[in-house]
Amino acid sequence: MTNASENSGQYAGFLPPRFHKRPDADDVMIKTWTVGDALAGHAVPEIPGPLSLFFDLVAPAAQRAGSTGFAMLWLDRHPHEEPSWRLSVGHVGGHVGAVDDLEVAVEKPLARLVGAMSLAEFETGNWHMTRPLWRKRAEPVRLVFWGDFARHARAILGHADGSGFYQPLGAGLRSDHVAASLPLLEDMLGDPFLLNGMGFEDALRLGIALGRAHLIESWIDAGGTEKEPYFRPMRIWHQAWFASALIDPAVASLAMSGQPPMPALDFSQSATPDRRRKALDDVSSWLRTVFFNDEHPALRNAFVAGVQNAVWLDSDLQQYVQPRQRSEILQGLMPYCRWFLAMALYNHLGNLAAGTARDDQSKFYATLVDALPELVPLGDLATQRDIEQHIIRIDAARAASAFDTLVLPFCDLLMPRRSFDAVRA
Fold first, then answer.
1. How far is residue 260's CA from residue 256's CA, in Å, rounded to a whole number?
2. Distance between CA 347 and CA 415 in Å, rounded?
3. pLDDT tens column, 262-319
């Protein structure tokens, strides 16, 4: 969205803040322990007393130590092992000595836990290394923050208009519920979203997020109760990312008169795939009404392309594509690829003719032509028909491979970003 420093309008004073003390994710060290014995089944049990006490003590102790971090209790949903408790403690620090600093910050509550339950070191890594494991296997049960993380969490969860822009609160969750705080990890440690306006790739990412969410629900439906526990971490973590990504569109909509409020996703543990899909459809309809309508055709088509082609455009999902499905998926992708490429080329060649093309656009165009030599004959006098005739000669496989690495960034470089009146401070 627009830079906060440029946001001096009537909304600037009461909107939720961005997390300005965002650490390098390589500096967020996370140590995980296996706690206790394996569990008998996949139902979420009561948290053992010593673990509850640890969570009562850990944030105040780490706060006194001047630390910034978090602790998360989760169930490991490894498909070939019995479920068991895992305790992860994250700490923001430099590369050298970060793990030692982490253990010093939580030394006393950890010592009490060690005396009451068996602990075995499971894994130590930074945020980038740990997050992929969590997205596949971790069902979060409890999450607490301290330091800068806790201050940001309070600013979001305690905001007077929180239910209007923060999905878990809009869905009626208590602020201390694990699903209410989980999206804040993405907000504080993930890549910032919607900076300096809504661009072409931003619209596509929101579309992919919706498409991915629908696919996950379809897999849960098809797998039934036997497979549901193993899909649960993927669903929970993706829902958390999507909830964090929706903060900024929801904030922007506050300044748009006559627009409906953002509907809430379904975070209920008892919700069925059908109920969650209905909530996703409501959010999708809201996004199309407010942001991806006919007034913004480039953003609209990017969003729709993401929804319909998530299985190909989401790198996590490509591994699930069967060889026999590949050809069908590529054929479905081609109309979007050709439309986006034609739009970008028409704009760029027009800019060349007018002498307004930027150096970064011209350099990117040269890279694009190297990968797709069918475009070499096009010059600044090319008509829309010339462009379309050359694009259609590119075979589906090469066009698809260039789609997310070249075509989409080129479009993003050329399409003006949509700015908003209300943005996070």
1. 9
2. 9
3. 999 999 988 999 999 999 999 999 999 999 999 988 899 899 989 988 887 887 777 7
Distance of alpha carbon 227 from alpha carbon 219, whole angstroms: 9
Q: What residue spans in the chain does CATH classification 3.30.70 cover?
A: 17-158
Nearest one of 32, 37, 54, 59 to 138, comparing CA atoms: 32
Which stretches of 254-322 are DSSP H helices? 273-290, 297-308, 310-313, 315-318
The CATH code for residues 17-158 is 3.30.70
Residues 6+ apart with CB under 8 A from 174: 180
Adjacency order of strands within the sheet including 69-76: 119-126, 28-35, 85-92, 69-76, 138-146
CA–CA separation, 352 and 340 (whole Å) = 18
- Residue 2 Ramachandran class (φ > 0 left, ψ -120 to 50 alpha, else beta): beta
Distance CA 269, CA 230 (A): 15
Model confidence, pTM? 0.89
CA distance linking residue 303 with residue 291, whole number of Å: 10
Element (H, E) at 119: strand 119-126
Cβ–Cβ contacts within 10 Å for residue 335, how many? 12
